[in-house]
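Milestone M4 deliverable, item 7.
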Amino acid sequence: MKDAYLGIDIGSISTKGVVIDTDGNILARSYLWTEGDPVIASKKVARELSEQLDGDVAVRGAGTTGSARRLVGSMLGAGVVKNEITTHAVGTTYLHPEVRTILEIGGQDSKIICVEDGIAIDYAMNTLCAAGTGSFLSSQAKRLGVEVEEFGEIALTSKKPANIAARCTVFAESDLVHKIQVGYRREDIIAGLCKAVASNYLNNVGKGKKVIAPVVFQGGVSKNVGVVDAFERLLGMDVLVDPDGHLMGAYGAALLAADAGPDASAKEGAFASGSFDFQAVADFEFNTREVECGKCANHCEIICVYRDGKIIDSWGNRCERGSLSV
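Output delivered:
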């Protein structure tokens, strides 16, 4: 029986999952839209992963990351629950030990991670302006009547990309409408949008950060060759896109789970038998309740997760008084 480890990255737009062996090789991978329900999305990802595995693989541990990492971590009985900065850095440096700068653009947020000697030494995130994210490109693709998956190839055919205001979503959309009305070519507008995404990222998320080669670009937007080309032109250096770059958060979570070992995962639920039971995840039922803790002046809003009437996890407290006992 071959030991393996599961990693799931639950984002607001997409949910990603991988299963790796003890050498870090990916045995199964999945990428699905979250569609506003991280639990259902995680169950679907788990099902897709299980269908790709043969009978001689036993998943001994699990890790989660992303915006719903605590919730899904409780569901899976994960032994590792880490933030996106940590998992992206771990996954990327494992595959690319020499990396110095990690650019990541997802569906609704983006981040930059500066690396030195394989260690993340600085980072920045942007969760306020959508002009440098995948959701912005998707909305503009609908406006132009083009599939967002076609954006990159179309952008590369442009001879003169339009200058699209990249300061924020509102300005960019207004400028886009103006460009359409005055007759700009579609490929020039699309190339301009790709450039606007890269420019907005560097001027906001990357502000004050020194981008040093080698540079690795990841996240769903890294699959857009038009944005990759824009980054290379703006930075004046090559930008590497790993084939599994959109899965790097999940991959890092799986690596951390492997490093923690089998003993880190819960010995109940999906791991009750000692190895991960994908069917138990599919059957998992729970409910959540919001509790206002009055044990100090913070009055934290704590999310409590219950299974069979028993609290299994909680988060949101800013001091020890608001722990699982609320």
